[in-house]
Amino acid sequence: MTSIQKKIWLLASVVLSIMAAIWIALTYYNQKSQDQYNDILQRYLRMNEVTIASQQLVAALNNYLRSPTPKQMEELQAREDTLRQTKFEVQSLRNTDNDFELSNYVHLIDSLVGTTDRSLLLFQEEKDAEASGKAFSEATRIAMYISEMTLTLIDKELNTYDRFYRGIIEQSEALKRLGMWLLLLITFLLALFTYWFSLSITRPVLTLIQAAKELSRGRFDLKIEVASNDEISFLAKMFDRMRININNLIVEIQEKAQLEKELQQSKLLLQESQLRSLQSQINPHFLFNTLDTISKKAYLEGSEETSDLLVNVADLLRYNLKRLDRSVTLYDEVRVLRQYIEIQMARFSERLQFYTEIDESCLHVQMPGLTLQPIVENAVIHSIEPREEGGVIWFRVIDGPDRVTLEIEDDGPGIADHKVRGIMEEHTFETEGHSTGIGFSNVVKRLRLFYGIPDVLDIESVAGSGTKIVLKLPKIRGSEAYVQDLDRG
Amino acid sequence: MRKTAMIVLGLIAVVLCYFTFVSAGEAFRADWPLPRALDEQQARYRLLLITQELETPFWNKVGDGALEQAKKVDANLQVWGSYGRNEDDFLKKIEIAITSKVDGIIVQGLDTAEFKELTKIQAGLYGIPVITVANDVPMQESLRRTYVGSDHYSAGRMIGRELAADMGPAGTVVLIGDSRQQYYQKQRLDGIQNVLKNYPDIVTVYAETADARESVIAAAGDVMNRFPDTDAFIAVNANIVEALVQAIGKRFQIKPYHIYSFDDSPESLSLLKEGKLDGMIEQSPEVMGRLSVDLMVKWLNGETIPLDMNGYYTDIHMLKAMDAP
């Protein structure tokens, strides 16, 4: 049986048992007073019976004396028996109050029977009609006394039972009052009980409705709690589980959307850099050929240094155009970096001092193309270009257990804190004179996307004494998906 | 708010419960004092005191005394009787008592043939002992066991002596009595005359009257007409004294007369208090009641057999107007 049904059964049985209790009490009481009424009536009837029986006896005697037939005699005997019978019945009515009268009464009956017998005896045996008649008149008188005594007894009865009768009347009044109060009390209690009971059913439902409303408004984080032990609480539990599931699904979807968004962003980023590279791709063959031609011409004219410089520029340009959307090895990057430095050396001559410490064993590490060049270019722009006396740039490749550490250090004025934070949070700044048009933040973004870990790049900058940019490249790529995605796009 | 509502509801519930329980207690209370039912007649003597004059001070006292004694000896006694000397009713009561076979009848003696017939023949037939109280009927006529009450002869003597002392040895005395000539009245008369005959100068006049009020007044008037120099009245039967005083009062001042009577009428004491009576014989009704019951029970128990035929006299004394409170 389910528990709401149980509750309803409980209510019904409580009401039923109250009604049954009242019914039983009233029936019992009714029966009791009915018995009492019967007893009282019985008493009166018995007393009256005596009067009637005695009068009948006298009448029968009279009839017999007038016409002494056996039939009349029989009748007389029957009457006498009846009177004796009633006498015994009347004996049982004795109580402390009417003891005296009742004794008199019983003796009167005896006297009547005795006198009747005497009259009969005189009539039959001694044929003394006169004496018999006298006895008969005496019997008549006694019968009269009996009926008077009956009245006296009934009177006495009324007096004795007066309080009892009044009690019965009062009791029936009290019963009426009781009925009223009982009705009020039961109504009140039932109202309370029903209220409580209906509340115990509807409150969980209301809670559930509230919860459903919240859900429909889109709030999935509110826990649904129903403190009851019926089906509603079961429903609520199921509902809550559903909410949790939906919540989980939504979180998942949100995460996916986030991922998608990031992907989209990286694509946009890529397209941007491609666009830039395309912009700078203005007739590259013509530019390369021209640069080659100028290089040969410079070589022929004996200016070998200029010729090498031009070859470097051409290589750098070619690399720039070609390698942006591929992963390359550290080796390639370092080579391009050297070419770039050579060009810059030609520009700044002794103002730029470039030192490298390279662990050759880790040059096979994969990394996104055009990563080092923009960083170093950044260092050149900020710490060499503005300073008359020039500056120093260190480049180190240090092997680690699972990562390769690249350090690019300069002794320039440093980068402001807010700028560092901006870079780390991948905000785009206006790029100042970058040759490839690829900014620092672009590099950071691509590195993170490439490896799928956030702490690839670190900037340690002290104002006025230099900046150190540390790249920690994992030897094994975390995110292979990146490249695949790039290939597809 | 919620707390207030709870308190109010709780109060209502308590009040309703209280009233319900109170009325339930009333409705289902079953402690009415019903007389205890008896299966057998109790082995107590059923005695009856029967008088002609119920609810008079004198007989109330007799009844009280009797009831008190009955209670003491655990006998069942009831006082029956007629009101205002209704003889038929009185006799009927005696007959009922006899046919009811009570154990003993204590009865105010009545000097009539019917009474004697009842006590002698009927009571004899059923074997019921009869004791006369206050007023006697001669033993040989009524077959009573004994008599309990005042010695009316000596009461008469007492009143005669008192009269002689008050009035002096000369004068006219009117004795007025009931025409029915009851036994006790005769004794009283005998007593008075027995004393007064020693005073040759005192003339006694005897007048009789029926006990109806008008005839008393008429008889008194008649006597006063015939003997205008009357000095004293003695109402030999107390029942006529009130009418007598009224009759005298109509004609003369009551003061100069010496009026005497007995206490066994309802009016006697009040007349004495008013000073209209000079003296009356006071009897001992309580003692009569007590003694009669006591004797009856003793007789029934077989403790005192036989009872004194002449009777047991109770105390009498003279009560004068000046002694009265």
Automatic annotation (TrEMBL), chain A:
<dbReference type="InterPro" id="IPR010559">
    <property type="entry name" value="Sig_transdc_His_kin_internal"/>
</dbReference>
<keyword id="KW-0808">Transferase</keyword>
<feature type="domain" description="HAMP">
    <location>
        <begin position="199"/>
        <end position="251"/>
    </location>
</feature>
<dbReference type="GO" id="GO:0000155">
    <property type="term" value="F:phosphorelay sensor kinase activity"/>
</dbReference>
<keyword id="KW-0418">Kinase</keyword>
<dbReference type="InterPro" id="IPR036890">
    <property type="entry name" value="HATPase_C_sf"/>
</dbReference>
<dbReference type="InterPro" id="IPR004358">
    <property type="entry name" value="Sig_transdc_His_kin-like_C"/>
</dbReference>
<feature type="transmembrane region" description="Helical">
    <location>
        <begin position="6"/>
        <end position="29"/>
    </location>
</feature>
<keyword id="KW-0472">Membrane</keyword>
<dbReference type="GO" id="GO:0005886">
    <property type="term" value="C:plasma membrane"/>
</dbReference>
<keyword id="KW-0902">Two-component regulatory system</keyword>
<protein>
    <recommendedName>
        <fullName>histidine kinase</fullName>
        <ecNumber>2.7.13.3</ecNumber>
    </recommendedName>
</protein>
<keyword id="KW-0067">ATP-binding</keyword>
<dbReference type="Pfam" id="PF00672">
    <property type="entry name" value="HAMP"/>
</dbReference>
<dbReference type="GO" id="GO:0005524">
    <property type="term" value="F:ATP binding"/>
</dbReference>
<keyword id="KW-0812">Transmembrane</keyword>
<keyword id="KW-1003">Cell membrane</keyword>
<keyword id="KW-1133">Transmembrane helix</keyword>
<keyword id="KW-0597">Phosphoprotein</keyword>
<keyword id="KW-0547">Nucleotide-binding</keyword>
<feature type="transmembrane region" description="Helical">
    <location>
        <begin position="178"/>
        <end position="197"/>
    </location>
</feature>
<dbReference type="InterPro" id="IPR050640">
    <property type="entry name" value="Bact_2-comp_sensor_kinase"/>
</dbReference>
<dbReference type="InterPro" id="IPR003594">
    <property type="entry name" value="HATPase_dom"/>
</dbReference>
<dbReference type="InterPro" id="IPR005467">
    <property type="entry name" value="His_kinase_dom"/>
</dbReference>
<dbReference type="Pfam" id="PF06580">
    <property type="entry name" value="His_kinase"/>
</dbReference>
<dbReference type="InterPro" id="IPR003660">
    <property type="entry name" value="HAMP_dom"/>
</dbReference>
<dbReference type="Pfam" id="PF02518">
    <property type="entry name" value="HATPase_c"/>
</dbReference>
<feature type="domain" description="Histidine kinase">
    <location>
        <begin position="303"/>
        <end position="477"/>
    </location>
</feature>
